[in-house]
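Sample pair:
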Amino acid sequence: MIKFCLSKFLFLLSCIIIKKKYELYFTFSCFFFGCFVKNYVIPLFQVMHLWVFFIIGGESMNKTQDFTKGVIWKQLLFFFFPILIGSFFQQLYNTVDTIIVGQACGTNALAAVGSTGNLTNLVVNFYVGLSTGASVVIAQYYGAHNKDKIHQAVHTSYMLAIVSGIIMMLFGLFFSYQCLDAIGVPHDILNDASLYMRLYFLGMIPGAIYNIGSGILRAVGDSKRPLYYLIICSIVNVVFDFVLVVILHKGIAGAAIATFIAQTVCAILVTIQLMFSKDVYQLTLSKIKFHLPVLKKIVQIGAPAGIQSTMYSIANIVLQTHINAFGTQTIASWSVYVKIDALFWMAMAAIGAAITTFVGQNYGAHLYDRIQKGAKTALAIALTMAVSLSVILCFGGSYITKLFSSDPAIINQCQSLILFLMPFYFSYCCVEIFSGTMRGCGESFKPMLLVCIGICVLRVAWVTFISPHYPTLKGVVISYPITWFTTSFLFIIYYKHFKKDHFGA
């Protein structure tokens, strides 16, 4: 460990020497996190640090970004990478919980934490959708250089975050047990799963505030600072996970409390940044209130986007009920697979956020040709990432699986799922890119409808009527690629009509 920490320190010190303006707290955070990583993934994190340093650490990302001019693919990538790496660290909130709980508390505890994932995502995805609405509205105003509307949108968004956070917190506190029981979580892990979920939902208010705050920053082209905050908070989560679970033996309660503390730190950091900003998006706490015309516009875009996100979770909850019937071991294997699978969904969400912001600014500036070029470029990037991740995870997934569990049965079953599902990643790309493009133009209802039909309805129909005739795990999860192909086809057809109506293309 000492040699590893020393080598990490020398590596990052070299980066500082090469580029003196590389932020010290960011360097420290990467070093600190790396000290918790097992030796066989050191090369991966060394490469990641280099990418972070050279892509994000430069002067090009220090300010807001105007997407209405410049080279499209460069702008998308420079905006994309901070979001991707930020999503990676955000995913660490739950992933570190899972790793530490799985290693320190055993298979039952691992299954308990994993069984809450779809329900928490159901709620979290909705306020992430609301934050998307805020981002789109602010991006459009920013592209149109409307300072007054930007001011109103920022303060309305913050009020919306507070209100929605309170509602979701109360939902989680009072209905966690009933919801988990309804989806068939086994009774031997139900109490632990309910405890984890209730404590997790205590962080809904700071979670909503962070997502809204980071959405505001990204709307004006700043994807760097949200990344920094997530890195810091991931470190906080790692430290408190280790202290509460490993040292103090608080089990899954300790893991949930660690996540709550990290989310609170995130919310505080992004709020301070907005309060002390000298730009048009400055936040004044005394001015936080609803501006009804702006609120209406945010909700018109954000609510369908939130519902679209929850559609995935609803479909997955139904699917989870069928997976639960296979027993605790299968639940644990599936929970590990989902954590690895999240790498792909983080990449898709990042490129989706990038194209949404890009389109939002250009739509506000009425640059329709640039929007179409941006959509094509984003789709090419998404397809390249999907194929690359499929190859990498199919060959290296077993090594990642061992981070979560030492149980050979779980490792083998998880690897089987990886080889079965991940080669089909490419089939989803059109859904993310075209829905992001349409959402950036202010059209959020019809993409939601397509996802409802192609993902939610079809997946539920499959596991209800088809998979019972094939009573195996693969007979259930094959619904994923089937719905990806179907929904992408629907989006391709509709996007052709969308271009004619909005761009005359």
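The radius of gyration is 22 Å.
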